[in-house]
Amino acid sequence: MSTPHIICFGPGPKFKGGIAQYNTALARSLKDGGALVTIVSWTQQYPAIIPREFVDKTSRSSFLEGYDIPVQYLTNWNDPRTWRSTAQAIAALKPDKVIIQWYNPTQGIPLKTIAKYLRKHTKAEILFDLHFVAAKEQSSLDARLTRMALRHGHSFIVHAYKTAEELKALMPEKEFEVTLDGRRSGKWQVGQRQVNSLADLEIGRSPLAILKLYHPIYTLFKPDPTFDKEAWKAQHHLRKHVFLFFGFIRKYKGLHYCIEAFAELAKQRDDVSLMVVGERFWQTVDQSKLSTKLKNAVFGTVKKIFLKKADDERDYDPLALIEKLGLKDRTLVVDRFIPNEEVPPYFQAADTIVLFYETATPSGVESLSYNFKLPAVATRVGHFPETITDGFNGYMAEPKNIADMVRVMNASIERPIPRENVVEATKNMSWANYAKAILRG
Question: What is the pLDDT of residue 59?
Fold first, then answer.
């Protein structure tokens, strides 16, 4: 059997954030599984009016070091000419599978162009890797843009049953089959030409495969075996029990709940600290520059037109609660993007990861914490009840309930979760198993 060639389309390793890390880790795992892999990336993922810096300009290391995986930066959201040229470049590689990272409905038009072209001009299986279907900030256009692109997929990867149900609701006229091990019983087989539209009769008679997998454990960040936890904590004035909030500061991640719950916990005990480590999502560019002010004005107008919710997240500033609630001596705040090399100490110094989300799709921060054997305190939203067993590898609180969040934070101290429980709960969530399921079809 010939070596399969797989294209991983999504943000390349030069970009910030979990999707770029995910796409890189996926490419590595498929390479380790015996495939020939190429990453094809955006050069600019979003409309130019968005006032945010998306490129990682601080990390010194690349997660592709030691891997023979070429990266081609080809697709500019703002230049439609690159959409077709990207599809042509992918087709010229004669891939067996093209895995497209789906994580923002604004990308629906370019990804529709690319996927539709590849269905017509290649024999590749087109898989959409769905980090969500229903957006967290759902606009009146989101469902239309999402459907516009996803209708050109042969198969779909989801990390939670909730996402599978959202996909079925998006295309109720289609028949789907859910597979847990990657086997597809429908018409799709690698190397056989498939019909070019989900509207075509043949594919209408064949169920579309939903690969229900999981968000694999991030092994990109390695624990330092020489790390001196107590010395590091003393250096940073941390107390005995340390909670960690990590990653981009977005409203749906519930940092405001985390800080308010921690404030109540700190009234009850003097042996707790909180680390808030991550970049404020909308504060990554110089706000005083004229170009930023213009982008903010245009972007704000567009959001008001299309968002169903009037709330503008750019004004979200939960860090102000720290001073308001008198927590400065109890918290370590690192308000910036964390380069790859600096990530491990925060997880190694922590005792518990805090995931008090308002809504949740599978979380890269959760998967990253598992590589450091960290138990979680989390809210019962999204996929968390699928990955966290209350009292075994973490504790679960009711969403938006400060008292219940305080309860589970206390429980994590009074009845600490054994680290081996975290290992046991995640033993099947490896990238190797993940890649094997994708390659099986």
Answer: 77
